Structures are given as C-alpha cells and as structure tokens.
Amino acid sequence: MSGIVTIGEALGLVIARRTGGFDLQSDAEMSFGGAESNVAIAAARLGVEAAWIGRVGDDAVGRRILRALRAEQVQLHETVDADAPTAIMLKDRPRPGRSRVTYYRGGLAGSRITPADVPSEAIVGAQVLHVTGISLALSDSAAETVLSAVRLAREHGVTVSFDVNHRSKLWSAEAAAPRYRELAALSDIVFAGDDEAAMLVGEESPLEQARALQALGPRQAVIKRGEHGASGIDGDLEVEVPAFAVDVVDTVGAGDAFAAGYLVELTRAAPLEQRMLTAAACGASACRSDGDWESLPSWGELRELVDGVGDAVQR
Prior knowledge:
The protein is an alpha/beta fold. Strand 4, helix 2 and strand 5 form a beta-alpha-beta unit. The chain starts with a strand and ends in a 10-residue tail after the last helix. The C terminus is likely disordered.
C-alpha cells in the first residue's frame, strides 16, 4: 500500500562541475534524475509512503538509480531490461548562468516500459497515481502504459494526478497538446506551468487558465508560475499563493517538488490553501542547491524556510 505511486523514466545524470561544454572540459559528477522518481523521493522525505514503477537497464546506471531510490525509502516496482541500457542525460554549463541538457533516451530501457511492467496491485492500493506528459512522448508503449494505469486507477477510485511537464526536445507543442488534453480529461488533478497551460487552453490569466483546464475534466487544476507564485482551483474554491524568496542555485526539480508537496497534503486531506502553500515552499526549497532530487526538502527544512508562515507548512 502506498500513499503516492508514480510511473515514469529515470535516467543517469552526468553534471559538469565547471563552466564550459563537455566538448571543452571533462570535470563531471554522476547522479540521476527523472520527474516521476523525483516526486516519489520528495513524498517519501515528507513522510508519505511512495512507490515508483519504471524500467532500467541491467547496468551500473540502472543499479545506481535503484539503490538510491531504496535508500530514500521509495518502494520499487522495477523491471530490469537485459536488452537495452539505462538512458542518460548530460548537463553542462556552456557559459555562466546558463545550463544545457542533452538527452540520450530513444529506444533505451525507460522508453521500453509496457503495461505488463505495471503491477495492478500497486495502482489499486494507492491513494494517488502521479504521471507526467514525458511518458506520452517517450514511445507508444510508454504512452499506453501510462494511459492503461490511469484507466485502472479511475476504475478503482484512485486519485489521478497529471503534471504536463512538456519537453520540447521530445515533441512539438502542436503534437503534444491534443495528447495532454486527452490525459487531463482522465485526471483528477492537473499541474501545468503557465506556458504549458497556454499550450492547452490558451493565453489567459492564471485562474482563468485553471478554470479552463478544469473544464477539460479534472476537479483540481494548479498553475505554476515560478517566481510569481501559483494559482489553484478545487471545485469552486480558488487560491493564489506567492512564491517564497530564496537564493536560486538550480531550478531543476522545483516543479516536481511543488507537485509532491501538494499531493502529500492532499493525502492528509488538507484544505486547498494549505496544499498550495506547502507546494510553493517545496518548490522554493528545491531551488537552493544543485541536483534533480538531492535538495528536495524534509519537513524540518520547510520549517526553516517558512518560519512564521503558519500551520500550512508546520509539522
């Protein structure tokens, strides 16, 4: 039994330690990343049972990912692919203040996930199933895996959470938008950046975007606006929250932290305002150091960030 179960690709991550592209320098360190595994780690650090379903290669990178997820107390439903390696992403800094990510993922283990890799009991036994638009773009089998899991969750009353998480390097906005709207219609919660919401429902104010997303089918819709805060809607309730001011080191993983904070509070039946405040605090906290998941916060770190804000983020 899990509070939150996620499905998606996890990739090895090679990060440059000095400014300059990998064509010019080779000082780097190894980690891993992936939107869905980030959400699982963030939820586990906040005390909610979390699980990850995915596929990795039978290689050192895959073993590293699985070992780290276990160390973070994430329950695993993994498939180890003997015929394809784990995907890799390279993150370098061609010049100060700019990061660049290059992916090597097509046809590799994560994209080869199938509905047979998903244990039905893991979905049926969860409070929340969380998926992203990344899986829709990886491959036909990855898209079918996510849609199959979402349909199973709906049949059994499991809350479905969908983060658009558009990746322009995987597909165009024109190709992606209809598929995102299809998945939004099957979801209970949709998270989107304001630019992603514009892709799906047009250029409106954040709350108008949230209402338009809600009209597609989900009861809850949340618009993430980075340093400008966030806007959320749940039924007839509407809430806008400001961003927390932090010294930003790296924004990678902030959206995943935001979603995890919201979902953790949802599993505890918190009201919308509390869900939104905790989400915003989690997103801000994740920006304070490098890495996809290493800076995801505990409750203690959130208290340190938002001392005096109130019960919304005090545990």
